[in-house]
Amino acid sequence: MGARSTGREAALQMLFALEQGTSSAERVIMHYWRLTPGDPEGREYADRIVRGVEKDLKKVDETIRKASVNWRLERMARVDRNVLRLGAWELMNGGDVPRAVILDESVELAKRFGSEDSSAFVNGVLDRVAEDLGRVDRDRAAASKAAAPGGKGGGGGGGGGGHRPAKRGARRP
């Protein structure tokens, strides 16, 4: 597992702890790393996410609310809610990380820590968040441009690279 992947996992655990208690992000971060070893790059990335989510929580939650039609944030499973916060914050602030990577990593966290339905739910909501934010990966943008009338490339850009959202309740292969 790469440094950012382990950082995201640590960030999820810290966000979960942050939501359960009355401590600040700084105290949760300090306590977490006192008990858990981590490589410096993953640790730095995790800390950045946790601090960012705490700082931008209202904006992050509002973004999730808009994307999660018929789901109140407060009624979501705690794990799902925090995976969504992590992924939404990254989509809002992680310009160097491709959309597909953020969605795939979030889905993996949901599979690992959530319920059987968590991964499809997280995938669907974060895909809507990404669309709402205008986050289109370069591969998807190039394929769309090539497929547009007058675009170069003669069609569909069959090289993959785009992220296909799962329908709610659908299983990914």
From TrEMBL:
One of its GO terms (biological process) is DNA-templated transcription termination. GO terms for cellular component: cytosol. The keyword RNA-binding applies. Residues 150-163 have a biased composition (Gly residues). Residues 164-173 have a biased composition (Basic residues). Residues 139-173 are annotated as: Disordered. GO terms for molecular function: RNA binding. Transmembrane segments: none annotated. Keywords: RNA-binding, Transcription, Transcription antitermination, Transcription regulation. InterPro entries: NusB-like_sf, NusB_fam, NusB_RsmB_TIM44. Residues 8-130 form the NusB/RsmB/TIM44 domain. Signal peptide: none annotated. NCBIfam families: nusB (TIGR01951). This is Transcription antitermination protein NusB. The gene is nusB.
